């Protein structure tokens, strides 16, 4: 049986970097991948969606050209084949770059196939058996498909298949009004599809504060996206050329029909076909691998990184898992998941940048909280860009003066929020930023102003 110093299962956002680090120390490393190198982010997640979001924004701005005094001769058209080809090029570059770096390491053996545990330190990949004293699981997740009556009888789409669609949907129905659903909804509306979002919760992106949900809903509705909240999709069926969706809802029509259906109702970890029970590796009730603060599973010598451990659902959290394991195992500088401050962006346009606590979460801490708020209508850069939807908010602990969280929905919101994030990592009092001189004209220049106008959170 081939024996390695380490085996990495999956080439998502943690595995390849870890394999390269381990190999650089002289270890013989096997990397097993059953699908495309780069996993979700590179192939069916961040990279392709953000490439297509860029195309959609260009179409949107071209339609708004007259607002800026610019003349566009004729109507704005979207060539879906070229949008897809551009996206495919960007994805291929990223994937091939990663493949080349793995193949370029003489200590790494890349094995294509599905890995399955036979015991704590033994894996089967097809007919091949592998063993190593250290095994790193980076198997990620996939779209969770709900048990909706009729779903098996209609050609529904997921984040993966929608990215390969070469023709524009006449009417795209999106089930699920959260990260995946909203990014695709706005994108396809801007490509000129009719789009309806169906969300069973009382509002979109239910984990965010109510005013964030309301502002994002207003942005999408302003572009012609139809939104049905409080609408639980309870069944689907074919209706001639269309797909009909049945809703359990207090308001609005209980039936809806569209040409295409996107299921964006969450993700599930790829842990069901990994033989974890045979290895004695514990999972929780949602199928996530149980890990400690440094990514160790219940079996000594086996770690789980990325989406499959349920401690993050983002590329940067998966990559940080790699950093924690590498620092702890190789650098003698132990790091921990609990040191991580929640941070993420939602790539609707304008983007939503979020760090730390929401207002609702801050209230629950029982601390005395100060809040600063400013609408984008009072931010010079947003006015100059003609993009005044959204707002920024910062939450501060009144006693320690530390920043608890921030929201920036507006131009560059995903970038601007990092100024706050770094101050939070520094555990510096908010007064440091309040007195900093920021560059004019930027959205970030208003952060010190907002911090100078803090009020008690009621
Ligand atoms: C549409 C969409 C957009 C997103 N946009 C963003 C974004 O903008 N920013 C952000 O931070 N995050 C985004 N995410 C989330 C991000 O893609 C994931 O959090 C990230 O890819 C997680 O990486 P990972 O390392 O856990 O695993 P993954 O990237 O999922 O990779 C896991 C790999 O393991 C392989 N594998 C699984 N099981 C086995 C097995 N048994 N044997 C061998 N190989 C196996 C898979 O084939 C896959 O290649 C998005 C997700 C989606 C779906
Ligand atoms: N920008 C980013 O970083 C980004 C982008 C996309 C995805 N992601 C990652 O992907 C993960 C999954 O995102 P997601 O949006 O698929 O899932 P989610 O779990 O965030 O949201 C699913 C939504 O579907 C709704 N829903 C479920 N069943 C329904 C039904 N039958 N009828 C109507 N509504 C229903 C839920 O109420 C919920 O709002 C996120 O947690 C995120 O980490 C990140």
From TrEMBL:
Binding site for NAD(+): 176-183, 199, 266
Domain Pyridine nucleotide-disulphide oxidoreductase dimerisation: 344-448
Record-annotated active site: 440 (proton acceptor)
Cofactor: FAD
InterPro entries, per database record: FAD/NAD-bd_sf (IPR036188), FAD/NAD-binding_dom (IPR023753), FAD/NAD-linked_Rdtase_dimer_sf (IPR016156), Pyr_nuc-diS_OxRdtase (IPR001100), Pyr_nucl-diS_OxRdtase_dimer (IPR004099)
GO molecular function: flavin adenine dinucleotide binding; NAD(P)H dehydrogenase (quinone) activity
Domain FAD/NAD(P)-binding: 4-319
Annotated keywords: FAD, Flavoprotein, NAD, Nucleotide-binding
Chain sites annotated for binding FAD: 50, 307
Cofactor note: Binds 1 FAD per subunit.
Disulphides: 41-46
PANTHER family found in the cross-reference section: MERCURIC REDUCTASE (PTHR43014:SF2)
Family, similarity comment: Belongs to the class-I pyridine nucleotide-disulfide oxidoreductase family.
Protein name: FAD-containing oxidoreductase
